[in-house]
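Task: sequence design from structure.
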């Protein structure tokens, strides 16, 4: 016998009218946004790892001298505050040919230089005395392909050297006390290193941190799509249940309808992600923009996200029908308020106690922190409706204005629905509290305007100082040149013999000074404060970028979730709102009640998650050995205020829909 589920589901969907179509469009829109953001987050995580893998060849992989075929020295020089990675390669005589580095067509011969496209443009754009003259005696042999670059904006040069060139000598190793893997030399036989560049090694970790904090609000948005129009669906299916439909048929109809809407929305969001890949690739992160292929997640992830969002929406819709299956008459009469139980509070307190005791020592691995984060999210998701229910009862007892009383009754009658409206911003409060306080700030020596040249000993330093004054005068750079000693640690050289030039006139003059002093470095580039601070600055800049992106996206997702839920609530409660208008309630009162329905639980719950985010940030700072970023308190206040305003704007955005829904009732009162 043919099942009536599919024909009946299709018939009910077609006959649901304009408001049914509106609910379906809202649900599909939420699914599209959820799928799009999930794919973008996965793409960022995968792409950042791919970028790092494209820089591993630059780190020399040392082999035994008997097996070595070449010498590799990797270092960095700066121009306009941007790092230029310079890889010097020298083929050893009477050894097997060394394979070409990634992105090059051949191993460079002595005197040949391959550059990345971005560096080629920069060499043409800037005056020679600011950059090009740092590479004397070499001829252009071509450009480096994408296989050897992390980004289209990557600044890389590969230079072929003679085995006796000072640039590949043992003295070209680490420059000074501050040097942390920016300069490295080794005998190599190929380019098989697995250690990423300093400028990309932290990219994936920081992206994953942002993804973990953002994924739950995105999942909340997607699951909310399955609950859009829930009240209307319950009424319709309860009538079918009373007419003789079995619980299995009711669940099957809901699953089919929700899966169809969710699949259409999720596929639309996934296709939008694919179409927008070229635009997404232009967004800068770390060393620059992306290659489009780095952000393509592949067919498996693409299909998995579409299926996951569809399944999430379907499960979310089906779980709403427990009462329809067991008590259809109560649903049809809307006589059973959805109360919550005290066990939610007990579980929440237990989880908080466990998290507190676990993080007290501050020595946690990444997997443990991830598990605790999801445990916290789960506990707060369980706890939220209970708080909303109690708030509704308390506010209703002391309410003196009609709008407040209406809001309180809605909170206590449907705490889960009210929680879904504010849950996105409540969880975003945790993200805001975490990132605002955990922003890393590393204090270290600062020697802006200094250019340092390392020498073999103090005697050489005196000679190089005289040559440096001549070279700077010839370049038209105003600078004070001094010689450092082993006891002088208050400089870029920090006790290493060499010369310090204190340059006046800004970054352009500093770049010119570096170029003018390059011939004096015996194969080593002069370096500046950017070189010394590179490891710390790279971490802090990545965290700052991810923090800003996560904060913005979390509040955008929260506002979108609130707006969609508020619009769906208007459609679900159109009968209630119509009766209120018939009884003489002004539209302004209904609007104020909806705002208070969001603001009351938001004030309590978002405040709680923000405090928990601050606590989590303090634990992270404790583990990292850094202090709390007190300046982030201003950013935190701004985030909270903007988030609250966005929530109110999202709720008020459905006012035209409320006006249309109650238009007939309003006319009946005239």
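Answer:
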């Amino acid at each position: 016998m043919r099942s009536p589920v599919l024909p009946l589901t299709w018939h009910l969907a077609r006959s649901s009218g304009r408001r049914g179509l509106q609910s379906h469009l809202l649900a599909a829109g939420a699914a599209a946004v959820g799928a799009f953001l999930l794919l973008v987050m996965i793409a960022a995580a995968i792409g950042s790892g791919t970028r790092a893998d494209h820089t591993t060849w630059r780190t020399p992989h040392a082999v035994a001298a008997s097996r070595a075929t070449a010498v590799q020295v990797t270092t960095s020089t700066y121009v306009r505050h941007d790092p230029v990675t310079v890889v010097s390669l020298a083929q050893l005589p009477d050894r097997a040919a060394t394979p070409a580095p990634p992105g090059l067509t051949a191993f460079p011969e002595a005197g040949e230089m391959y550059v990345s496209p971005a560096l080629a443009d920069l060499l043409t754009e800037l005056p020679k005395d600011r950059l090009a003259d740092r590479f004397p005696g070499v001829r252009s042999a071509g450009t480096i392909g994408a296989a050897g670059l992390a980004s289209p904006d990557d600044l890389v040069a590969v230079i072929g050297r003679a085995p006796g060139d000072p640039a590949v000598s043992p003295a070209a190793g680490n420059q000074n006390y501050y040097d942390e893997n920016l300069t490295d030399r080794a005998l190599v036989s190929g380019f098989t290193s697995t250690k990423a560049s300093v400028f990309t090694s932290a990219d994936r970790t920081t992206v994953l941190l942002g993804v973990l904090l953002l994924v739950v609000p995105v999942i909340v948005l997607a699951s909310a799509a399955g609950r859009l129009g829930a009240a209307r669906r319950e009424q319709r299916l309860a009538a079918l249940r009373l007419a003789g439909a079995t619980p299995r048929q009711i669940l099957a109809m809901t699953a089919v309808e929700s899966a169809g809407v969710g699949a259409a929305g999720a596929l639309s969001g996934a296709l939008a992600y694919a179409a927008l890949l070229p635009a997404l690739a232009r967004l800068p992160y770390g060393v620059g923009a992306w290659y489009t292929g780095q952000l393509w997640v592949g067919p498996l992830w693409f299909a998995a996200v579409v299926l996951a969002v569809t399944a999430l929406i379907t499960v979310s819709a089906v779980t709403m029908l427990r009462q329809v299956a067991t008590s259809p008459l109560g649903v049809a009469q809307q006589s059973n308020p959805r109360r919550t139980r005290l066990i939610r509070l007990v579980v929440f307190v237990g989880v908080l106690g466990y998290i507190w005791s676990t993080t007290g020592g501050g020595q946690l691995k990444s997997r443990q922190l991830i598990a605790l984060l999801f445990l916290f999210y789960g506990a707060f998701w369980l706890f939220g409706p209970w708080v909303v229910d109690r708030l509704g009862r308390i506010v209703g007892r002391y309410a003196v204005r009609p709008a407040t009383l209406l809001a309180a009754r809605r909170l206590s009658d449907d705490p889960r629905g009210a929680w879904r409206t504010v849950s996105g911003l409540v969880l975003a409060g945790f993200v805001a509290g975490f990132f605002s306080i955990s922003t890393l700030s590393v204090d270290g020596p600062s020697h802006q305007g200094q250019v340092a040249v390392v020498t073999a000993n103090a005697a050489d330093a005196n000679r190089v100082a005289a040559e440096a004054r001549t070279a700077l005068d010839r370049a038209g750079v105003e600078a004070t040149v001094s010689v450092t000693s082993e006891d002088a640690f208050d400089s870029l050289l920090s006790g290493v013999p060499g010369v310090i030039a204190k340059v006046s006139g800004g970054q352009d003059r500093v770049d010119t000074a570096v170029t003018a002093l390059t011939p004096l470095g015996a194969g080593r580039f002069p370096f500046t404060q950017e070189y010394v601070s590179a490891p710390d600055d790279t971490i802090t800049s990545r965290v700052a970028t991810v923090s800003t992106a996560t904060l913005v996206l979390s509040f955008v997702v929260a506002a979108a979730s609130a707006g969609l839920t508020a619009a769906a609530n208007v459609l679900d409660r159109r009968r209630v709102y119509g009766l209120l208008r018939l009884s003489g309630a002004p539209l302004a009162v209904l609007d104020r009640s909806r705002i208070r329905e969001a603001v009351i639980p938001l004030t309590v719950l978002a405040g709680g998650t923000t405090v928990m985010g601050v606590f989590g940030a303090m634990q992270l700072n404790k583990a990292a050995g850094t202090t709390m970023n007190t300046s982030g308190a201003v950013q935190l206040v701004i985030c909270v205020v903007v988030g609250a305003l966005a929530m109110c704007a999202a709720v008020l955005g459905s006012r035209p829909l409320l006006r249309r829904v109650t238009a007939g009732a309003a006319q009946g009162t005239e």
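The beta strands are 70-79, 82-91, 112-115, 139-143, 156-160, 184-188, 450-454, 479-484, 498-503.
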